[in-house]
Write a structure and sequence with these properties.
4-stranded mixed sheet, mainly alpha, 26 helices
């Protein structure tokens, strides 16, 4: 008996070890030994360079056009606790900005009346405050949040493809000039896009533990909707993905060998129910017992779900054995949750097989001994109804959590929900008005939607590739993204989007990676304000995650190509330092030529008024200066004393002509005549052009 047990033990050990592998080379062995601290170190370096770039931009840039509005509204939240200014945007993003404003503690004159733009300028330049200090503290919360969203991109990509893929995504995220530029400003675009990315990641994780991750995904979605209303178009997509995750989570794991119907306590019944083609197999396989059988992977190697080893799992990432026992879908809620959590987990738990029906064996399906049966295909109408009910319950959980966050944001400003708008709110009639009135959100939120629809109905001027037009172009955002996105990120992101659809082991992640940014981009393309890629910052975020799918295990050329393109992206980003806002990739001539192709927040958002003051003091002291500035700053505060050349006859304009590139793009009439009869004399920050007359 003892000899037999020893023989079985040795046989299993030999099977688990497999054939001997060749000894790895010295560099690979060194990396394998130190990978536990090497990955965090590389991630820290990438985030540190991004933080340094954003802080540098935040220190050197003067307020952009939108920032004084948000900072003044945040200050009003702190002092008056009311919803008065900027109702077109919900309060959560401005509450985050208020955390920095509270540290700066600027003097605020609540009795001042005027538009939201007037209040912002009055706060920064007419109330005895230091605008440099106030703006830096207002920008710091957005900088911190941008770095945290980088960790979300890393975690999302790591769960899809492993540690190397996570680093690829983080590197592309950290070197994205658009994310650095807008992540260093006290605006709402990066927070909204980052919350959508976080919600998509949490919905993806809900495929394993919906009771835990769906409420969190709903909270992240609510944070996006409570930051900018443009996130509303992502709501139906993420609700549908939540239902899909519940369906994936309800695939039934096999009972232990001794508990299977038709088997004894010591023997195992053959695998039945047909081949496993669902997503649950690769979720559950890493959590099975320690026996290494065909179709499973050892604890220290990723499992792909298709019988292969060494590839990316659908888990928390490779080489993460901790917590697996807690993540095993057992059909019962984790120990110690609250009553609501237990009810939710019970509703979404896998459905048990019907009693009294033994599972019939099916030979030839021994690729794994993990037995899974989708309850949707169980054949019982009751099982189908329970599955549909669970999927709908998952979507409802996400929706309820999102609505709760929206209400909480307004209640945090004013528990009484007072709404006294400083400017009139337009009326909204027809179908849009009826739909807005049906939304279960505070009245101030619905009023903000009316303001947004009113803005969309106005005719705005756009500028694309040297052409000034009135209205909007449906292809404006895709064209602007081609200009403003690094070539390495474009190439890797496009290849990753193809890979996530074409590669079988990644295909189930395609809806989570591609649908949210696709729907948001399609919705943004219908907008009437062609003002910049800031309306589509979710694109580089999700592209970075998709790019992690390019390196393929066993194909070294894909890893080499990905590394080269990441390096190219990093070099392109570092070359534009510290002028990230006017960035354009090498195919379009770089930052110095962006103003010939695009305008507004793509190039010149009023951010270089302080740099212009330094240039005039250093190189043009005593010269007559004529200025056409587009922005929210006050030139005289920075020591710039200049006249508007459009107010005098052209023959009287002599000296240095300074024109913001956003104004230069729309130059017509007298300004175009003045510029045409002058000679170029340089630029400031690639956003303000100088001419000599």
């Amino acid at each position: 008996m003892m000899a037999r047990e020893q023989h079985l033990l040795l046989t299993r050990a030999a099977a688990a070890e497999g054939p001997p592998r060749p000894a790895p080379g010295r560099p690979y062995a060194w990396l394998r030994r130190h990978r536990r601290w090497l990955v965090p170190l590389l991630a820290g370096v990438l985030l540190a360079q991004m933080a340094a770039a954003m802080v540098t931009a935040a220190v050197q840039q003067t307020p952009t056009i939108d920032e004084p509005v948000y900072v003044a509204t945040a200050t009003d939240y702190l002092h008056e606790h009311r919803i008065r200014y900027n109702p077109e945007h919900p309060p959560l993003g401005k509450l985050l900005i208020a955390a920095g404003v509270a540290v700066a503690d600027p003097h605020y004159d609540a009795s001042y009346t005027g538009t939201q733009g007037d209040v912002g300028r009055h706060l920064l330049y007419e109330s005895g405050n230091d605008p440099w200090r106030v703006m830096l503290w207002a920008r710091l919360p957005v900088i911190v949040l941008t770095l945290l969203f980088g960790l979300v991109a890393f975690a999302f990509a790591r769960e899809l493809t492993g540690q190397a893929g996570g680093l690829v995504a983080l590197a592309l995220y950290a070197f994205s000039p658009d994310l650095i530029a807008h992540g260093s400003l006290a605006t709402l675009d990066v927070p909204m896009a980052g919350f959508v990315l976080t919600s998509a990641w949490l919905v993806w994780r809900a495929r394993r533990r919906p009771g835990l991750y769906l409420p969190l995904a709903g909270a992240a979605l609510g944070a996006a909707v409570a930051t900018k209303m443009s996130a509303l178009s992502a709501v139906p997509v993420l609700l549908g993905l939540a239902a899909l995750s519940v369906l994936a989570a309800r695939r039934v794991p096999a009972p232990p060998p001794g508990d299977r119907p038709g088997t004894g306590s010591g023997r195992e019944a053959p695998r039945t129910g047909g081949p496993d083609t669902g997503a649950a197999r690769d979720q559950e396989a890493p959590h099975t017992s320690g026996r290494r059988e065909q179709g499973t992977a050892p604890a220290n190697r990723p499992y792909t779900g298709d019988g292969r080893e060494g590839r990316a799992p659908h888990t928390d990432g490779p080489d993460q054995g901790h917590g697996r026992e807690h993540d095993r879908p057992t059909g019962r809620p984790p120990a110690g949750p609250g009553r609501a959590r237990r009810s939710l987990s019970a509703l979404m738990a896998p459905a048990a097989p019907r009693r009294g029906k033994a599972l019939s064996p099916q030979p030839g399906t021994a690729e794994t001994r993990l037995h899974t049966v989708p309850s949707v295909l169980a054949g019982a109408p009751g099982g189908r109804r329970r599955t549909v009910a669970a999927a709908l319950a998952g979507a409802v959980v996400v929706a309820v959590a999102a609505v709760a966050v929206v209400w909480a944001a307004y209640l945090a400003v004013d528990p009484g929900l007072r709404f006294t708008p400083a400017e009139p709110v337009p009326a909204l009639h027809g179908l849009r008005g009826r739909l807005v009135d049906l939304l279960p959100v505070p009245g101030a939120y619905r009023a903000g939607m009316r303001v947004q629809f009113g803005l969309e109905d106005q005719p705005w001027q756009g500028y694309l590739f040297g052409h000034l037009y009135t209205g909007s172009l449906w292809y404006y955002l895709p064209a602007a993204l081609l200009v403003k996105t690094p070539l390495g990120l474009l190439a890797l992101g496009a290849a990753g989007a193809v890979a996530v659809v074409a590669v079988r082991r990644l295909r189930r992640a395609a809806p989570y990676v591609l649908l949210p940014p696709g729907v948001l981009l399609a919705a943004a393309m219908t907008g009437s304000r062609d003002f910049g890629t800031r309306y589509a910052l979710f694109v580089p975020m999700f592209l970075a995650v998709a790019a992690a799918c390019v390196p393929r295990p066993g194909r070294r050329w894909t890893a080499a190509a990905a590394a080269a393109l990441v390096l190219f992206t990093g070099v392109s980003s570092l070359r534009t330092f510290p002028y990230y806002l006017p960035y354009a990739n090498e195919a379009f001539g770089g930052p110095a030529r962006t103003h010939r192709l695009l305008h507004d927040s793509n190039v010149d958002w009023g951010q270089d008024l302080g740099r212009l003051a330094d240039r005039l003091r250093q190189r043009h002291g005593g010269e007559r200066v004529w200025l056409v500035y587009k922005g929210s700053g006050v030139p005289s505060y920075y020591g710039i004393h200049a006249a508007d050349p459009r107010t005098v006859p052209p023959e009287r304009v002599h000296g240095l002509l300074v024109v913001s590139d956003s104004a230069l793009a729309k130059a017509r009439g007298r300004l175009a005549e003045l510029v045409g009869s002058s000679r170029p004399a340089g630029d400031v920050g690639h956003s303000i052009s100088l001419f000599r007359r």
